[in-house]
């Protein structure tokens, strides 16, 4: 790892460590001030599960993007930035809870999903478990707005941050709907995959943190929003491609989950769609028969992985990710006339670190 990469990684780690301490303090205060009426136990348990999922892991790249976006403008403390970071991560918690309901996923971040935690607690009351999980995700979404509403910042800035956050949240839900529809396409084309990624991931994971960081630092987004979009789009595609790549080709010991979850769930991900497109007739039948089978054996996943490698899918995805990283890096390099060199260098290098992480 060169010095630039090491510096970027150290900055991400530093943001993660500081934010995690702040996130923990937020939930401590929330538990005291959001008391349930009467002697009920369901609300405290809901908050406990949200806290557990929120603090259990995650690299906090959204937080790092937000803080580094502010550093494009200033190195001073930025009022409202902390609340903006809490807001975007609470929105992430909301998304994880609902994703795991949609996917019927038992685990998340090395522990039980919120849905399955409730299922274990209410084994004979499935509707109650489902309802509580849905409401937990809803609560996280509303808390993500409330933390901005209560921020001690000028009303104009509060409104601007809320507008970015709520637009990103709306787009993300639309992206989730599109994600489900995508899997009804026998072979989704690249344009559809990119569109789903844009709505489901890029707009709230990349673009919203960039916008919120700059807004909090006092920047006018109007002359720069096109630049932010040109950076966010390839970074978002890169991140989704990496996740899809790891699901098929990743080392379980490194990734932390079994390979083939996209196949078992019937997802036409970047990796699965590329494999379907490249496979021969008989090979494609193997993939199609496995798609959506929750009991798809490890040996079949391994066979599909071999087909993908033989047909050049692994190399293609790596090359596509590299091109995305180069496009994003070139865009960031063009920011030098406008913003601080140190922060520009961070954004210039970050996509290449993203291509290498866990591959």
From TrEMBL:
PROSITE patterns: POLYPRENYL_SYNTHASE_1. Pfam families: polyprenyl_synt. PANTHER family: FARNESYL DIPHOSPHATE SYNTHASE. Belongs to the FPP/GGPP synthase family. Keywords: Isoprene biosynthesis, Magnesium, Metal-binding, Transferase. Its cofactor is Mg(2+). It comes from Streptomyces stramineus. This is Polyprenyl synthetase family protein.
């Amino acid at each position: 790892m060169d010095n630039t990469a090491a510096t970027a990684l150290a900055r991400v780690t530093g943001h993660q460590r500081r934010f995690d301490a702040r996130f923990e303090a937020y939930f401590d205060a929330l538990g005291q001030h959001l008391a349930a009426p009467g002697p009920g136990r369901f609300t405290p348990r809901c908050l406990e599960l949200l806290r557990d999922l929120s603090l259990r892991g995650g690299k906090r790249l959204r937080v790092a993007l937000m803080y580094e976006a502010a550093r494009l403008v200033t190195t001073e403390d930025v009022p409202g930035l902390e609340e903006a970071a809490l807001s975007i991560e609470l929105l992430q918690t909301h998304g994880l809870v609902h994703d795991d309901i949609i996917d019927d996923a038992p685990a998340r971040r090395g522990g039980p999903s919120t849905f399955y935690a409730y299922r274990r607690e209410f084994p004979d009351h499935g509707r109650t478990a489902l309802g509580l999980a849905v409401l937990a995700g809803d609560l996280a979404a509303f808390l993500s707005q409330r933390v901005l509403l209560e921020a001690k910042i000028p009303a104009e800035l509060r409104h601007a941050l809320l507008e970015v956050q709520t637009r990103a949240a709306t787009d993300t839900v639309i992206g989730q709907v599109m994600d489900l529809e995508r899997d009804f396409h026998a072979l989704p084309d690249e344009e559809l995959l990119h569109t789903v990624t844009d709505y489901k991931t890029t707009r709230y994971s990349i673009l919203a943190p960039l916008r919120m960081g700059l807004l909090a630092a006092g920047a006018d987004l109007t002359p720069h929003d096109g630049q932010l979009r040109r950076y966010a789009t390839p970074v978002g595609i890169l991140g989704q491609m990496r996740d899809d790549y790891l699901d098929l080709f990743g080392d379980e010991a490194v990734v932390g989950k079994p390979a083939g979850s996209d196949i078992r769930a019937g997802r036409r991900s970047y990796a699965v769609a590329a494999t379907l497109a490249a496979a021969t007739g008989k090979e494609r039948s193997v993939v199609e028969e496995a798609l959506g089978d929750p009991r798809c054996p490890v040996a079949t996943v391994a066979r599909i992985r071999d087909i993908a490698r033989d047909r050049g899918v692994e190399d293609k995805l790596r090359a596509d990710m590299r091109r995305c990283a180069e496009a994003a890096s070139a865009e960031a390099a063009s920011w030098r006339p406008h913003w601080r060199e140190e922060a520009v260098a961070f954004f210039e290098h970050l996509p290449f670190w993203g291509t290498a992480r866990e591959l």
